[in-house]
Amino acid sequence: MSDVLRHEDCKTLLEIMDVIEKTLITKLQKETPDTLKILAVLTGFGNSELPRTLDPLLEAYSPCSDGVSYQL
Fold first, then answer.
1. pLDDT at 27 (0 to 100)
2. What pTM value is reported for the model?
3. Structural domain of residue 7, as residue ranges?
4. Confidence of residue 39 (pLDDT cuts 50, 70, 90)
5. What is the 3-state secondary structure (H, E, C) of the chain?
6. Are 9 and 39 members of one domain?
7. Euclidean distance between CA atoms 23 and 18, whole angstroms
8. I need a labelling partner for 21 at 20 to 30 A (CA). Which of 30, 31, 42, 68 fits?
9. What is the pLDDT of residue 72?
């Protein structure tokens, strides 16, 4: 395989990756943050717990519309 073809392949791959990245960013920007998704990421999907000092913040920013905050 010539260097020119490798360069073109790499260039094409980078262009595809750029389009995918922009698409994912646009999709994520359209979604509203979900507290459970954020907590899942922060806790390593349940592998650890958040520090208890964050409890007041989590309760204050609970998005529940029924007035019942998430049980921590």
1. 75
2. 0.38
3. 1-31
4. low
5. CCHHHHHHHHHHHHHHHHHHHHHHHHHHHHCCCCHHHHHHHHCCCCCCCCCHHHHHHHHHCCCCCCCCCCCC
6. no
7. 9
8. 42
9. 45
Q: What distance in Å separates the CA atoms of residue 26 and residue 7, rounded to the nearest whole number?
A: 29
Same domain for 41 and 67? yes
Q: Is the confidence at residue 15, as pLDDT, over 80?
A: yes
Examine the domain organization and report whether 25 and 41 are in the same domain: no
Residue located via tokens 């994912």: 24
**Better-scored residue on pLDDT, 6 or 60:** 6
Indicate if 60 and 46 belong to the same structural domain.
Answer: yes
Q: Return d(Cα 16, Cα 22) in angstroms, integer.
A: 10
Confidence at residue 16, expressed as pLDDT on a 0 to 100 scale: 92
Contact call for residues 59 and 69 (beta carbons, < 8 A): yes
Cα 58–Cα 60–Cα 61 angle in degrees, nearest 5: 70
41 with 65, same domain: the answer is yes
